[in-house]
Design a protein that fits this description.
Helix content is 38%, strand content 13%. Helix 1 crosses helix 11 and helix 9 packs across helix 10. It has a single domain, classed as Ureohydrolase domain (Arginase, Chain A, 3-Layer(aba) Sandwich), CATH 3.40.800.10. Helix 7 links the parallel strand 5 and strand 6. The chain is of the alpha/beta class.
C-alpha cells in the first residue's frame, strides 16, 4: 500500500486561455457533489503560484511569462522531490500543463539514478520550444524542456538574450539535463500537433498510440504494449491532460480536440496503468471550469483521480 500525498498547483501562467487555476477547486466541488471525502483523506500541500503575472505585460512573446514559469518549476520540483524522498507517492493536481516541467524535475531530483519513462495522455504533443512555438504559451513546451530539446532544426523565431537564458535555466532545473530521454516517452490519444513537433517524435522514435488504436486493440493491450516499450525504465510518470478526452465531453478545458477518448476508456486506461509498480507519480491537469457547464470536466477528472488512487492503495 502506498502513502499518498496530494500536491495542488493552481498555476495557469503557461496557458493561453484563462481559468485553469480554478480547476483544483472545481474538482473539489465535484468530490463534494459525489459526497466523497477524498480530499480530507490524504495529506495535501499547495504550491504558491505566480498568477499575479497574468495582470502584467508580456516581455517574452515566444515563451510568455517564462520567468514566472522558471520560479514555478523550481517550487513544484522541490515539493515533488521532498514528497518522494519522504516515501510518499505524489498525486499532482495542476492548472496548466507547463507545471509538468517542475513535476518531472522533482522526480529526477529525488531519484537521480532512475531511468524515467513518461506516459503523456494528451491531445497535444507539448513539444514546442521558444524557437518553434506558434503561440508562445509554455504549456505547449513541457516535454521539450524535459528532454532538453531546442529543436533548432525546425527553428522559426530568433530569441532575445533574456528568453534564451531563462529557457536554459528551465532545461537545467535541478542541475539534471535532460530529465528524460526522448525515446522514453509514450503518447496516448495524441492527435493535434505541428510539423515541428512531428520532427521530434520522428527524431527520437517516440511511441504514439492513437485513440483509434486504443479502441481497436482495447485498453489492456495498449497498457501492455506501453510497458513493453518502457521496459528499460526504472520509474514511470503518468500525466493526464483532460483534453485527451473527446471534445464532445471535454468542453471544460482550454484546447478541446475531437476524436478523443471516451470517459470510460480514459478511466480504464489510467486505472490499468496505475497497477504497474514502476509508476511513481500521477498528474491531472488543464481542467478549466470557466469554459464548462455543470462542472462536467471536473467530475470526470475527479472520477479518474479517485479510481487511480483506489488502485494505488491496493497495489
Amino acid at each position: 500500500m502506498k502513502n499518498i500525498k496530494i500536491i495542488e498547483v493552481p498555476s495557469e501562467i503557461g496557458a493561453g486561455t484563462r481559468g485553469a487555476s480554478l480547476g483544483i477547486e472545481a474538482i473539489k466541488v465535484a468530490a463534494l457533489d459525489f459526497m466523497s471525502n477524498f480530499f480530507v483523506n490524504f495529506p495535501t500541500e499547495r504550491v504558491e503560484t505566480e498568477n499575479n503575472l497574468l495582470f502584467e505585460p508580456i516581455f517574452s512573446p515566444y515563451a510568455k511569462r517564462l520567468h514566472g514559469i522558471v520560479n514555478m518549476a523550481e517550487k513544484i520540483s522541490k515539493s515533488v522531490s521532498t514528497c518522494i524522498k519522504n516515501q510518499f507517492f505524489p498525486i499532482v493536481v495542476s492548472g496548466d500543463h507547463s507545471n509538468a516541467i517542475g513535476t518531472i524535475a522533482g522526480i529526477k531530483m529525488a531519484l537521480p539514478k532512475s531511468k524515467l519513462g513518461v506516459i503523456w495522455i494528451d491531445a497535444h504533443a507539448d513539444m514546442h520550444t521558444p524557437y518553434t512555438t506558434p503561440s508562445g504559451n509554455v504549456h505547449g513546451m513541457p516535454l521539450a524542456a524535459s528532454i532538453s530539446e531546442d529543436n533548432l532544426e525546425s527553428k522559426v523565431h530568433e530569441l532575445d538574450e533574456k528568453t534564451t537564458k531563462q529557457w536554459e535555466q528551465l532545461k537545467n532545473l535541478g542541475k539534471i539535463n535532460p530529465k528524460v530521454s526522448g525515446e522514453d516517452i509514450v503518447f496516448i490519444s495524441l492527435r493535434d500537433f505541428e510539423k515541428e513537433e512531428k520532427f521530434l517524435i520522428d527524431k527520437y522514435g517516440m511511441k504514439v498510440i492513437t485513440t483509434s488504436e486504443v479502441r481497436r486493440k482495447g485498453v489492456e493491450n495498449v497498457v501492455r504494449s506501453t510497458f513493453r516499450y518502457l521496459n528499460d525504465c526504472t520509474h514511470i510518470y503518468v500525466s493526464f491532460d483532460v483534453d485527451s478526452l473527446d471534445s464532445g465531453i471535454s468542453k471544460g478545458t482550454g484546447t478541446p480536440v475531437s476524436n478523443g477518448l471516451r470517459e470510460r476508456e480514459a478511466d480504464d486506461l489510467v486505472s490499468k496503468l496505475m497497477q504497474n509498480r514502476k509508476i511513481c507519480c500521477f498528474e491531472v491537469t488543464e481542467v478549466n471550469p470557466t469554459l464548462d457547464k455543470e462542472n462536467l470536466m471536473a467530475e470526470i477528472a475527479f472520477n479518474i483521480l479517485q479510481r487511480s488512487v483506489n488502485v494505488l492503495m491496493l497495489s
